[in-house]
Amino acid sequence: MRGDAPPGTLAVGGADGAWGDFREDRMVEPGQEPTGGFQRVREALARGWAQARARWAQIPPSVRPLLLVSAGVGALGVVLFLAGLWLVLRAARPSAVPPPTGGAGAAALPIPLRLRVNDRTLSVRPLAVRGGGWPVPRESGDTAFWMEGTFANLVLGLPDRPENRRLVEGLREGDILEVEMSAGPVLRFQVSGRQQVRPEDTEILAQHRPGLTLLLVGGEPRWAVTASPLPERPAAFLAMGRVPIGLPVQVGPIRLTAQSVEPRWSGPGIPADFIGVVLRFELVHAGQEPLSFERFEFSLVDAAGRRYQPTALEGVPIPSGLIAPGGMVEGQVAFLIPRNSAGGILVWRFNPLPGRLAPVEMEFELPRPTPTPEPKALLQVQIQSAQWLPAEGALILRGGIGNPGGQPVTLEATEVELIGPEGQPVPLQEASPTLPWVIPAGRNLGFELRFALSAPGPATLRIGRERFQIR
User: Fold this and answer.
1) What pTM, to 2 d.p., does this model score?
2) Contacts with 434 (C-beta within 8 Å, 6 or more apart), sequence order
3) How far is Cα 139 from Cα 29, in angstroms, rounded to an integer?
4) Domain-located, residue 100
5) Could you tell me if residue 42 is inside a domain?
6) Is residue 24 included in any domain, yes or no?
7) Residue 196, exposed/middle/buried by CB under 10 A (0-12, 13-18, 19+)?
8) Would you call 248 helix, strand, or coil by DSSP?
């Protein structure tokens, strides 16, 4: 502290006081004095501070600790309120959307696992674009590569090896390509074209159209095969999460194809008020561990939501045993449902790992039984000739009747008649052979009919359910 400093002044800095002076009521820079608005603010603050000190002096000393505690609690409440408000605002902030790729932190979108081209199946590995290039390894002969991030137009690449070049160059318009995804149904595409491309041709990679692009990467010429998606299911059906009969679908490690549905309206083991439903299926196990059929979920649900478990019918046992990794099983499963529940939509639920996977559902309707036609409805009648004899006033008709059914059919005399031009019945004079006629199953019968018709004119001949115009 300098000895020549005025009373109440602290000099900060060097011996010449160049850093400025601090006084009780104001701070000034060297060589300056506060003026104008700044001076008025400082004076107002000084008056407020003086009034606060005067009021504090009026408070009894015994009350002052309580006031200090109250002020501390109030300040803490304000701090907690501001902290809570900050947390709420932070939680309301929208989170970043993860990129739709198959890498770490990706959105849960299915990615390609296998590509089937004709009789060849290739595993699919994701491969990202790096530095503006797509480095497809040439030595991977049994692997196709998926360009990460291509979901609308799946871009798959094959290294230029002899077997891959033969495969690509052998594709023709209309050929079917299948892509097995990590979840959901197997995607099917139909080849729509093939063209030679250059490495800088990027239009074929565009994502503005759905489809599949298969590239032969490396070597010359470079081929690009384009394929269009096959409309397997309507959008509403996809939204329901159900798969139609005949469409392959991946359920965890199992690739399932329900091949057909057979209703059994009667037979051994089928009560009178029930029908049997037999589903034929194919399973391909792509996992690493054997799976037991006894643990699979096989159930059938009717339109009212009633659930039915598998049952044994003639030639269709309840599925049992193991399916090994890489194995393929063609099997059947049967259900018994009441006849009054057979109408409407039925849903087959399948799950190889109940409790660990969501089941796949396949919906279908049972084909109604074809009614057995009446035996007489199967008769085939043919008129071979018609001859009018004016001298005798008679019309002679010759023809034949075939019975392709499995039962004999009898035609009575009342089922053979001729209606004349005026709508009146024409008398039958003679029939050969004599009516009634019995036509054995699988046999033919020739006939001759003689009617008393005095004047020619249009007439109608009826034999059983058949009618013929005679002119």
Assistant:
1) 0.38
2) none
3) 78
4) no
5) no
6) no
7) exposed
8) coil
How far out from the chain centre does Cα 189 lie? 15
* Domains of the chain: total: 3
C-alpha–C-alpha distance, residues 448 and 432, integer Å? 5
> Residue 47: helix, strand or coil by DSSP?
helix
Are 344 and 393 contained in the same domain?
no
List Cβ<8 Å contacts ≥24 apart for 258-267. 258/348, 258/362, 259/330, 261/364, 261/366, 263/342, 263/366, 263/367, 263/369, 264/313, 265/369, 267/313, 267/314
- CATH assignment at residue 323: 2.60.40.1240
Scan for tokens 């003026």, then name that residue. Answer: 35
What is the residue range of 397's domain? 375-470
Do 296 and 385 have their domain in common? no
Structure confidence at residue 182 (pLDDT)? 84
Amino acid at 453: L
* Residue 16 C-beta-side C-alpha neighbours within 13 Å: 3
Q: What residues have CB less than 8 Å from 30, skipping those under 6 apart?
A: 17, 18, 19, 20, 21
252, 287 contact by CB (below 8 A): yes
Examine residue 337 and state whether it is found in any structural domain, yes or no: yes
Least confident of 249-253, 298-302, 409-413: 249-253
Residue 30 has pLDDT above 70, yes or no: no
Name 121's Cβ contacts closer than 8 Å, sequence gap at least 6: 114, 115
- The helix or strand, by DSSP H or E, that contains position 14, with its residue range, turns out to be none
Q: Which residue has the tokens 């300056």?
A: 32
